[in-house]
Amino acid sequence: TEIPPITASAVRFVPAGIILLALTFVKGRIEFKAIKKQWVGLVLMALTGIFGYNMFFFFGLELTSAINGSLIMATSPVFITLGAVLFLGEKWNRALGFGLLLSLIGVIVVISKGSVSTLLQLTFNLGDLLFIGGLLCWVAHGLLGRIVMKDVSPLGTTAITKLTGALMASLISLFESGWGGVLAMSTQAWLEMTFMIVCSSVIAFFLWNQGIQKIGASQASIYMNLVPICTALIAVLLYGSQITFVQIFGMMMVIIGVYFVTLHRNLMKKRNKVHKWREVQ
Asked: Per the confidence metrics, is the pTM higher than 0.85?
């Protein structure tokens, strides 16, 4: 409400990139050979996940409803998983497919509050196409991250992509003529911006990239379906919003879906190891 969206992105990501780069130097995680090897992938990650995703997202919100955008972005785990299976050699199985489908249905139930009429009354416009562009950018970002982080650490990857994406946003923001309003931002706006820099940009993106490196793009992507659950719970706890039994049911579907994609698979591996150990004994 106080500065234009692209300027806000630049103000958010430039300090985040600097903080992450400083942490990378302190921890001695600057792998120059790995960065040189993966520089194309790093630039593409910045172009898609930092610059492209945010541009599509912000402009899309101006032209379509939040519910349309939420429903479109809810399909990202499905597309990331399909991309990981098709292009990165990650394995497909029934538990993964069932978990994705169940979780996707649960997200739709939570967002629509279980109202069929809400879904039937949806209309699509240019804003929705922009959200689809944002969706494709985020999918590409996740898949590229899996490739890049074979050589570059999650911390180094996050720092470089943040700074590169921030520089792209800064150049485009010059056409918004919004930098004059940055110094005039209210205390509340600066507090909100500080939260977005530290929590949403530094901590969240680092943990996301760490997760992709550890468990793969397909398993990591399913956790995005927990976003509407967290949003609904925060709205209830902090803003006194009402939550329906249908939404609670949808949340349970999402959690069960996440279980089948991640925890169920890991538990089965542990059980198989225990069985093998007992057979050896």
From this structure: no
